[in-house]
Design brief:
The structure holds two protein chains of two kinds.
Chain A lengths: L7 H8 L7 H9 L10 E7 L17 H4 L4 E3 L6 E3 L3 H4 L5 E7 L6 H10 L17 H7 L10 E4 L4 E2 L2 E2 L15 E2 L13 H11 L6 H16 L1 H6 L2 H11 L1 H7 L6 H7 L3 H14 L4 E5 L19 H26 L6 E7 L2 E2 L11 E2 L3 E7 L6 E3 L1 E2 L6 E3 L4 H11 L7 E3 L5 E3 L10
Parallel strand pairs in A: 1-9, 1-10, 4-14, 5-8, 5-9
Antiparallel strand pairs in A: 2-3, 4-13, 6-7, 10-13, 11-12, 15-16, 17-18
Helix pairs in contact in A: 5-15, 12-13, 13-14
Chain B lengths: L1 H17 L4 H9 L3 E4 L7 E4 L12 H6 L3 E5 L21 E3 L7 H4 L10 E3 L7 H7 L7 E3 L7 H10 L4 E3 L19 E2 L3 E2 L15 E8 L5 E6 L5 E7 L4 E7 L3 E6 L4 E6 L5 E5 L2
Parallel strand pairs in B: 2-3, 3-4, 4-5, 5-6, 6-7, 8-16, 10-16
Antiparallel strand pairs in B: 1-2, 9-15, 10-13, 11-12, 11-14, 14-15
Helix pairs in contact in B: 5-6
Classes of the chains: A alpha/beta, B alpha/beta.
Chain lengths: 447, 285
């Protein structure tokens, strides 16, 4: 195995015998023996970028008037009384593993701010994407409490950053925790060939990660380059956080092995689906298995960028897009992920959190689409000690506002933190030593 | 500053936690790559993991784990241990969770586990066990979860064990032999798009209109490398990629989208306008 001269990083890893344990957990555990037992060791965040319609996913409204109900029917799930959209037939069989929250709401109608509040659990501060004035993302905050082995990144996100109209959005980085807590960006090396890549995302990948295009073979050159860099410590030290993390990842063999999807059983790969979404979730499972504490994925078939992309922002042609491109990918890849985690005995220790910007408007618009709707929408969890087969909260009959259990993205975060054994009230300090409380929300009673 | 503080805190935790157990016992485990963590919610209770950093762990190394008697959870996934090594686990009476997946463990190994009466979780996926192992497990009355995917265990074996232990959830997983990989056929181009050369008689629309999803196969039959731009809904240009001389690119697009082909110095050469069908777009000489 290649070994790197990591200096401070190595010091952190080798000197901390209890690496991997979350600090607040330990304090909580030692303070009270009745503290809930930590179940989740790692977290996979599945983000449906653009805003997934609650009507056409977890909260169908068969009784609502036709102009609200939309074109799709609903189906029974494995859990009596819980119905999903008819185009999630595979996922419906996994309802016993899912906790659905049907009463999330916030006040942000634009993608940027809605994404920010879902991703960070806090209101936007109006800073640029990489500014350290921003709140850290959920992935970043969770990863702060983990010290994985050298060569294993704390947090990975894929397959690229969230862009809206060519602009990168705030809320996916380390924010005031510092750029060393930025989840590192990787792209799955497989799946339906990557087409229609937004040039911004390509540039970002190439510059920030110094990863060549998307083929494993091309990575050899980078490895050689890094091997050479390694011989001169100064050169390695000069790599920025991203390059260093990329180097760590490529050189650390468990993670590098995980990244190589060619090593996965072809039948398992097939189970996830031969598209960006499926192969990303497969990669997420492999990375978690290899010890990466947090993995965030944007889920779709392929290109998420631009008006013609496969994002969930379905202002036009909502029903054909959902039926043909978006829901089948979500259905298959998420079902595969839950099946796979379960049969490997990993589901309990892996928290899966489903996030999105907001729901979609009740009335179908003149272009056959649904617009942004933050007044009420649905999110979900699986695994990580959260009880499956339950629905928390409800929207009203027309799906226009919460009817019970109204909750915020901050509450969603607090629940996720709790599953990970992290006290949401933990106070952290920014680089100027100013105190910040991790999360203002309250955990939902889903355990 | 902050980092120093964290390190200090973590070391503090390590030391104070270590007080409860013999430090030499813990360091022996750490020597073979094990990670020792306090088990949350209980005093003098430990979780020991080898699956991330201790994959070279061998049977004899398990004696170090046996010395730390109050182990509640032990993860030996994907290590080099065999059935023989499991005899060291016999005394771990507090053990609730045991990961043995993807090891060389077989039925003989499982016989060493029959006394672990507090065991609640046992992961044996990807091992060599058969129904015989399941017969031995029927004595573990507290067992709640058992994982046997990718083993020789049969449905009959599962049914039999479930009769003895009705509260046990046995996960047998997906039968991979039943998954048939069907290669999805690529949609074939149904029409050829017209090349609208710059300066030619026919002008393309100034911008794209939103439409339904389709794929265009661009073939570069010109004698140079070209760039492919999408003319967006506002008439702006977005670079989607480069197509080398003689190469082909399959491009997701929508009907009525306008695609601009330039040379590699961005000089416009011509346009294609997507129709409503999967199409072939040949960039001419």
């Amino acid at each position: 195995m290649l070994s790197l001269n990591h200096s401070r990083r190595d010091f952190l890893h080798t000197s901390v015998g209890l690496a991997g344990l979350t600090l607040p957990t330990y304090f909580k555990a030692s303070a009270s023996t009745t503290a809930p037992q930590r179940k989740a060791k790692s977290c996979i965040i599945v983000y449906t970028w653009g805003g997934m319609s609650h009507y056409e996913s977890f909260d169908p409204k068969p009784e609502a008037p036709a102009e609200i109900r939309g074109e799709f029917k609903h189906v029974k799930t494995a859990t009596p009384g819980i119905h999903f959209c008819e185009h999630l037939p595979m996922l419906a069989k996994h309802s016993d593993k899912l906790a659905i929250v049907r009463s999330v709401h916030h006040k942000h109608g634009g993608h940027g701010s809605a994404m920010y509040v879902n991703m960070t659990g806090h209101n936007p501060v109006g800073a640029k994407p990489k500014s350290n004035k921003n709140w850290p993302s959920l992935a970043s905050m969770m990863s702060y409490f983990h010290n994985p082995a050298a060569g294993t990144p704390r947090a990975i996100r894929m397959p690229y950053s969230m862009f809206d109209n060519g602009g990168q959005q705030s809320g996916e980085h380390g924010g005031w925790l510092g750029s060393q807590y930025d989840p590192i960006l990787v792209r799955t090396p497989a799946g339906e060939p990557w087409r229609g890549v937004n040039r911004y995302t390509d540039r970002e990948l190439n510059l920030k990660l110094n990863l060549d295009k998307s083929r494993i073979a091309d990575r050899r050159a980078l490895l050689t380059q890094l091997d050479n860099a390694r011989s001169e410590e100064t050169a390695y030290e000069q790599l920025d956080h991203y390059s260093r993390m990329a180097a760590d990842m490529l050189l650390g063999s468990p993670v590098r092995d995980a990244y190589d999807l060619e090593k996965e059983d072809p039948k398992i790969r097939h189970m996830y689906g031969d598209h960006m979404g499926g192969q990303s979730l497969l990669l997420a499972r492999r990375l978690v298995e290899a010890g990466v504490p947090v993995v965030q994925t944007l889920l779709s078939a392929s290109d998420l960028a631009g008006g013609s992309g496969d994002n969930w922002d379905t202002h036009r042609n909502h029903f054909p897009k959902m039926k043909d491109r978006l829901l089948p990918v979500f259905d298959r890849s998420v079902s595969a992920l839950l099946t796979d985690l379960e049969m490997r005995g990993m589901l309990e220790e892996t928290l899966v959190v489903f996030l999105t910007d907001f729901g979609r408007t009740p009335k179908v618009n003149g272009n056959g689409g649904r617009d942004h709707y933050p007044n009420v929408y649905s999110l979900a969890y699986a695994g990580g000690g959260i009880q499956g087969g339950q629905v928390y909260g409800a929207s009203n009959k027309k799906g226009t506002e919460p009817a019970a259990g109204a909750c915020s993205p901050a509450d969603i975060h607090a629940t996720a933190f709790r599953a990970m054994g992290i006290d949401p009230r933990t106070e952290l300090h920014d680089q100027l030593d100013r105190p910040f409380q991790l999360c203002d929300g309250n955990p939902l009673p889903l355990f | 500053m902050k980092k120093a503080l964290i390190i200090g805190l973590l070391l503090g935790v390590g030391l104070s936690a270590g007080l409860a157990a013999d430090k030499s016992v813990i360091s022996a485990i750490e020597k073979s790559g094990g990670l020792v963590l306090p088990w949350p919610g209980e005093q003098d209770a430990w979780e020991v993991e080898f699956h991330l950093r201790g994959r070279d762990l061998e049977d004899d190394d398990l004696s170090a784990v046996a010395a730390l008697k109050t182990v509640v959870a032990l993860n030996l996934r994907n290590t080099k241990i065999t059935s023989e090594g499991l005899k060291h686990l016999k005394g771990l009476s507090k053990l609730k969770r045991l990961h043995l997946e993807r090891t060389a463990v077989d039925d003989a190994g499982v016989s060493h586990l029959t006394g672990l009466e507090n065991l609640e979780y046992l992961n044996l996926y990807g091992t060599k066990i058969t129904d015989k192992a399941l017969d031995q497990l029927s004595s573990l009355k507290n067992l709640k979860q058992l994982y046997v995917w990718q083993t020789e265990v049969t449905d009959d074996g599962v049914t039999k064990l479930n009769k003895a232990l009705p509260n046990l959830k046995i996960v047998k997983g997906v039968d991979l032999s039943k998954i048939v990989i069907v290669k999805k056929e690529e949609p074939k181009p149904e029409e050829n798009l017209k090349w609208l050369a710059v300066g030619g008689p026919e002008k393309p629309p100034a911008k794209s209109k939103p439409g339904s999803f389709l794929i265009i196969t661009f073939q570069n039959k010109s004698n140079q490398d070209v760039k492919l731009y999408w003319v967006d809904y506002g008439g702006g240009k977005k670079l989607y990629g480069e197509i080398s001389k003689g190469a082909e690119r399959k491009q997701n697009t929508y009907s009525d989208a306008v695609w601009l082909v330039t040379d590699n110095k961005d000089k416009p050469l011509g346009y294609f306008v997507a129709g409503t069908k999967m199409a072939l777009a040949v960039i001419p000489k």
